[in-house]
């Protein structure tokens, strides 16, 4: 199955869902997950508690934007373009 996350087309229209799918991709790799926690100072509890917070989800995508390789890989895993993931961040920021 590889690193691709299967999604229905209607699911990929929701910015929060896209952010959560990308977060799931990142957390599926211990090294990437450790780097996220180390660089952001967040804990696993912070991530769980922030899963419904548009601001936290937007910041997570912004974190991916800081590493183009991860941004491209996360978008590919979710089945969207990197630009769509960035647009999801913008949409989430508007909800704050």
What do these coordinates show?
The structure is a single chain. The chain has 96 residues and is mainly alpha-helical. It contains six helices and no strands. The longest helix is centred in the first third of the chain and has 13 residues, at 15-27.
Whole-number mean pLDDT: 88
Poorly predicted runs are 4-12
Total domain modules: 1
**Computed structural class:** mainly alpha
Tell me how many strands there are: 0
Task: Characterize the main sheet.
Answer: none
Overall radius of gyration: 12 Å
Helix count, DSSP H or I runs of 4 or more residues: 6
Share of helical residues: 55-70%
Shape: globular
Report how far the terminal alpha carbons are from each other.
36 Å
Q: What is the element string, with H for helices and E for strands? A: HHHHHH
Estimated share of beta-strand residues: under 5%
